[in-house]
Amino acid sequence: MDRIDRKILDLLAGDSRLTGEQLGERVGLSPSAAHRRVKALEESGAILGYRARLSNAARGNPSTVFVHVTLTDQRQATMLAFEKALAQTPLVAETYLMSGESDYLLKVLVRSDDSYERIHREILSALPGVQRLVSQFTIRTLNGGE
Amino acid sequence: MDRIDRKILDLLAGDSRLTGEQLGERVGLSPSAAHRRVKALEESGAILGYRARLSNAARGNPSTVFVHVTLTDQRQATMLAFEKALAQTPLVAETYLMSGESDYLLKVLVRSDDSYERIHREILSALPGVQRLVSQFTIRTLNGGE
DNA sequence: GCGAGCATGCGCATCGGGGTCCCGGCAGAG
DNA sequence: CTCTGCCGGGACCCCGATGCGCATGCTCGC
What we know:
CATH architecture of the largest domain in chain A: 2-Layer Sandwich
Structural class of chain A: alpha+beta
CATH class of the largest domain in chain A: Alpha Beta
Strand order of the largest sheet of chain A: 3-4-2-5
CATH topology of the largest domain in chain A: Alpha-Beta Plaits
Domain HTH asnC-type (chains A, B): 1-62
Pfam families (chains A, B): AsnC_trans_reg (PF01037), HTH_24 (PF13412)
Oligomer: homodimer
Keywords (chains A, B): DNA-binding, Transcription, Transcription regulation
GO molecular function, one term (chains A, B): sequence-specific DNA binding
Protein name (chains A, B): AsnC family transcriptional regulator
């Protein structure tokens, strides 16, 4: 993992369809050498996979809701059960275990043709051990926010 | 944009390296027809591009910090200046204009070899019109969180 | 109401480009 | 000196890209 590998990772993170030749000329290698680097990065696990980036419209114009969750207690079993149930809730895009007041922060993508009330009920019923649940709505997404 | 197109978008969002043949057999089309669909989706703007997904280690083991920002006022000019400066701050991965107490929510990726204090100063000095700034740290990222 | 014409989307065939793999060369370390 | 790791170059093959003919369904005019 040298400077060239990092450059290749940066380039592929921006556009994974770059050809071996294009990669080669940007990092100063031949196409075959650049391609070998890529294969090695895939096999080492540095590159997890390749994804298409979709437009907002294609994703159903979702809006983002941040949900702060407080559990009934902080025993290992409670947290584990919560996290396990979370992994099977496709509405939740990202989850963070937080320091400070609330225990977890969930980033939920709500499609514009869904009502948040339904999502709220669904999340509450699917997740065990929830004591309190505070939702924070976005008006607009400026940057990133897949 | 019919059911087949949506299926194709779902599949490519998961793995953009699926071949025309693989796509075709999963949506019930010939390879060429599936490929034509993909090209059309690219040209219509539904597919914005293709990206490599990198491992946490390859990204420098960043941890996520959520920063709640309150501006000095809510005049159009103040918000515009803030947003404009934000667009040129690469540390900030995502930005949301929020309803409720704080005005903006920033998702900041801090590389493990950076100190947050430096980031904090950098953000404060780069962004105009900030009145209050509350940071919320993550202990662990469970799911997603690109 | 009905038929002709056109548009849309399919499968099949073909062509070119890039992925893939092997080989030979070279530099650095032991 | 030899071995190892990495590079460049070339051959092969598969996949992406595109043109062609055909079926289906819709529209418009009679």
